[in-house]
Write a structure and sequence with these properties.
Blueprint lengths: L6 H19 L7 H18 L1 H16 L1 H10 L4 H15 L8 H21 L9 H9 L1 E2 L2 E2 L8 H6 L4 H33 L6 H15 L7 H24 L4 E2 L5 E2 L7 H8 L35
Helix pairs in contact: 1-2, 1-6, 2-11, 4-5, 9-10, 9-11
Subcellular location: Cell membrane; Membrane
Main location: membrane
Family: Belongs to the OXA1/ALB3/YidC family. Type 1 subfamily.
Amino acid sequence: MELSWLNWLYTAIAQVLTWIHQGYSTFLDPDSGLAWALTLITITVAMRLLIFPLFLKQMSSSKKMQELAPKVQEIRKRYKNDKQRMNEEVMNLYRGQGANPLGGCLPVLAQFPIFISMFTVLNAMAHGELKFGMTQQFVDSARAAHIFGAPLPANFFMSGTQIESFGAGVVQTKIVLAIFVAISSLTTFLTVRQSVTRSMQQMPDNPMASQQKILMYISPLFAFFSLNFPLGLIFYWVTTNLWTLGQQHWFYARNPAPEFDAKGNVIPVAPKSGLLSKVKKNAPAAEEAPPEKPEPKIIRQQPSRQPRSKRTGSKKS
């Protein structure tokens, strides 16, 4: 899938990939799997950091919506027989409190062209196409790289002859690809589960709960479409899933689900400790050095005054 209006983004992604790979090639073999794995991890982290402000905006919008949930529920009960009035009142509430129901879509919309661009560029590299400013040397290096013995441009349905043309074993390549697809499926499920579980804890009466549960259980199936993707793209997807898991855990630990009193007012909740804090807490404390023994107090013996008769050298009277 190649969208002509995204050609500028394809070229930009290809150029950034080239710069990152050139950087790692200064101290690693340019054709090694390690150099290309680090290149893909680095560009994934760079992309996620680029859209990190959008993630914070999404989470802040979601948090605001959750805090307004009791008031929304009250409006739904009050105007349950007048859908139009109910929607107007809910939107007025959101508008008055500065909440945007569409704020959660921003990161998804931002990730879509990035994912399409990564897919297009890596797919072009896998097929040896010199597009988007990529040089012959750069494309050949990507096609020569192996990760755990599997060629970077290989996909699960590639024929044995094609896999062997990259200098790799067919069985080993299929096994590595199957493992990466399984990891991709698992991390996709965990990412969606983390988000859906949080949403259901905060809004148990959410009318979309059933759809969210269905989405959570079918999400791993989407990963199996990646059987037709090059290994490089699956590696990118696994990396971005792991980043998302860590990022969501970080935010949820610092922003626990809101709690409400009987009147629907938000009760402040103390942030939970993150994984890093738990690891630090469970780590055995460094043995404290025994306290230094106090130095013995030196008691100076004051010379006693002797009678004149006992003093040596005294003259007898």
